[in-house]
Design a protein that fits this description.
globular; seven-stranded mixed beta sheet; about 425 residues; binds pyridoxal-5'-phosphate; Aspartate Aminotransferase, domain 1; 2 domains; Aspartate Aminotransferase, domain 2
Length: about 425
């Protein structure tokens, strides 16, 4: 097994953040693409995986593979223990009160659809209101549109100002006694805006609404504590926090999950079943029909342990400085306009360049080894708010460096020059 190099630098509680040691934990970052060193700046789409995750996946399949929860043999016990230990790790990582509040799903999209189609179908009726924001990813928009259409409910969106931050007073003015649910991103994937989630949650609760926070773009970049946030639901995807694809998390307050009906039926989500009817397990098993992504859940636990060893607060501090540096550097590129300039931001630099379509820039950068994204980033309403249907998005993670930012700025300057 490969040794996580950065562990030695940080194991003693030292807060020194050695980005080069961390980079050595991520084998893909040493690759060349199109003859150039890979510069991975597509972290908002997905993050790269450290040896700790790669090794955990392969050791599971090499030594422990079994289905879980239903076998009496040794490997079934071992796999079940590892799977449930991963659930404990997620609970600790999110500051959740117990592992029973953690439901394993495929990702953020599935988590939000689960809430819409279980809690939503039960709790939202004709004339009720659901409040979101203009910043939402389609995954935190379309499920609510579908629910509103099915139930005859109204979907309202809080506007943002010219920096890309939610206009708090306008948001509060949307909250009424008819508001059943408020759903918003912790961090916008298109602009990088960090929303004032604590204040937004408190205002929604004061209006009697439940709150779902889409944490897909937050967990890899800042400490998250669902108890302090007082979120009713919090969701994230494993692949955006250095874990595998095909695994994600829905956190729900115990009393909220307990009152929710199941979604998918089958497998061991039942307590008992006859040909006529079934009774269901308590959460989280009630919401985990069928065979789970067992190895992926266990490897997600390894990803969170890895991040924990580095210290999420250290990661946040490092990335904050890197983002400030990158913002200043990007603004030196002639004709570059940053989209999303809120005071509180994380990871994302979204931009357009005079006279160049975003796709053209993406392709030109790719030829030089840069992985950035061009397009609508599955968040069309917010781009249209800025009169656009596409931007170039470069998104940073803890393994990116100032040197990579300098090279990006140089490449962009050459394009415009
Ligand atoms: N929400 C946000 C803010 C996102 O950035 C994404 C993915 O980009 C999603 C939801 C959907 O995540 P997934 O595709 O992993 O389900």
């Amino acid at each position: 097994m490969s040794t996580p190099v950065s562990y030695y630098f940080l194991a003693e509680g030292c807060s020194y953040f050695d980005v080069h040691a961390i980079r050595r934990d991520f084998p893909i970052l040493a690759q060349r693409v199109n003859g150039y060193p890979l510069v991975w700046l597509d972290n908002a789409a997905t993050t790269q995986k450290p040896w700790a995750v790669i090794d955990r996946l392969s050791s599971f399949y090499a030594h422990e593979n079994s289905n879980i929860h239903r076998g009496a043999h040794q490997l079934a016990r071992q796999a079940t223990e590892a799977f449930e230990a991963a659930r404990e790790t997620v609970a600790r990582f999110l500051g959740a009160p117990s592992s029973n509040t953690i439901v394993f799903v495929r990702g953020t999209t599935e988590a939000i659809n689960l809430v819409a189609q279980t809690w939503g179908r039960q709790e939202v009726g004709a004339g009720d209101e659901i409040v979101i924001t203009y910043l939402e990813h389609h995954s935190n928009l379309v499920p609510w549109q579908m629910l509103a259409a099915e139930k005859g409910a109204k979907l309202l969106a809080a506007p943002v100002d010219d920096t890309g931050q939610v206009m708090f007073d306008r948001y509060v003015s949307l909250l009424t006694p008819r508001t059943r649910l408020v759903a918003f991103a912790h961090v916008s994937n298109a602009l990088g805006t960090v929303l004032p989630v604590r204040e937004m949650t408190a205002a929604a609760h004061a209006a009697g609404a439940r709150v779902l926070i889409d944490g897909a773009q937050a967990v890899a970049h800042m400490p998250v504590d669902v108890t302090t946030l007082d979120a009713d639901f919090y969701t994230f995807s494993g692949h955006k926090v250095f874990g595998p694809t095909g695994i994600g998390v829905l956190y729900g307050k115990p009393e909220v999950l307990t009152a929710m009906p199941p979604w998918h039926g089958g497998g061991s989500m039942i307590r008992d079943v006859t040909l006529e009817r079934a009774t269901y397990q308590d959460p989280p098993a009630r919401f985990e029909a069928g065979t789970a992504s067992i190895a992926a859940a266990i490897a997600l636990g390894a990803a969170l342990d890895y991040l924990d060893r580095l210290g999420v607060a250290n990661v946040a501090r490092y990335e904050h400085e890197l983002l400030a540096y990158a913002t200043g550097a990007m603004l030196t590129v002639p004709g570059l306009r940053l989209i999303g300039t809120a005071q509180e931001k994380a990871s994302v630099l979204s931009f357009v360049l005079n006279g160049h379509h975003p796709d053209e820039i993406g392709t030109a950068l790719d030829r030089h080894g840069f992985a950035v994204r061009s397009g609508h980033h599955c968040a069309l309403p917010i781009l249209r708010r800025f009169g656009l249907d596409a931007t170039v998005r470069s998104s940073l993670a803890m393994y990116n460096t100032r040197d990579e930012v300098d090279r990006l700025v140089m490449a962009l300057s050459r394009l415009t020059g």
